[in-house]
Amino acid sequence: MSLVTDLPKDHPRISSEELHYLQKTIGDVSKMRKTAKAPWGRILMSLPVLGIATAHVCNNWGFYTLLTCLPTYMKQVLNFDLSQDGFVSALPYLVSWFVVVLAGQLADHVRNKRYLSTVAVRKIWQSIGQFIPACFLVAVGYVGCNKTLAIACLTMSVAFGGFSQSGYGVNHLDIAPAYAGTLMGLTNTLGTLSGIFAPLVVGVLTEDNPSREQWQIVFYIAAAIYSFGAIVFCLFASGVQQEWAKPHCGHGDDQQTGGHRSSINRSSESSSEDDHLS
To answer: SS3 letters for 77-106?
Structure first.
């Protein structure tokens, strides 16, 4: 706990430049905590939040499917002895680590140079991070027992999934800087459910018949869920701060948003907007 503080201004080693940047981009969080509560009604009815949550859940389905079951697939179908070649099962995640870093740097470069708007970057990176892994998962089922091709496809699937961290993974900060932690807690809780159900589905499909055909079904399901998440995110994602997340917006009880206009209409304004290039 000696390395972190609750607020940026309380950190003993923060530079004045970094503190100024944080206060400029997300405002004075300490004041917001005293004057406003999280507008849960509008958060739960927000289409951009729905897009993030769906992408998070679907991304985690594919991630946990491979994380928990990849060694089993390698042993049962590819006949790898992982006790002597554990590096093979770790290889996809090693490559993914590099991709996450490089994809993030590339996303920031594109945004800073104004080649693309924030929402365009988020949608493109999310599409790369879910559609391409889906394609490689489907391909795994068609390479037969060719170990080299199977490992290559699995590695590419996990690696390209790293692009999604610059899609839905940071989009909470785009739409609600002051509530980014709250939104991450919400979507990550939902996303973790995939870690419970994905291995269960794999077990049901392969426990009694661990054939290549059954594993194909596993990969088809993961690919379909990957694709669904990307589609929903591309439909509803936003790249600008939502009205309900702005410091001047009087939240109070969500009843203030009722009456003549519904919360879902208020929160969907950004699904059609685009932060235009300057």
So the answer is: CCCCCCCCCHHHHHHHHHHHHHHHHHHHHH
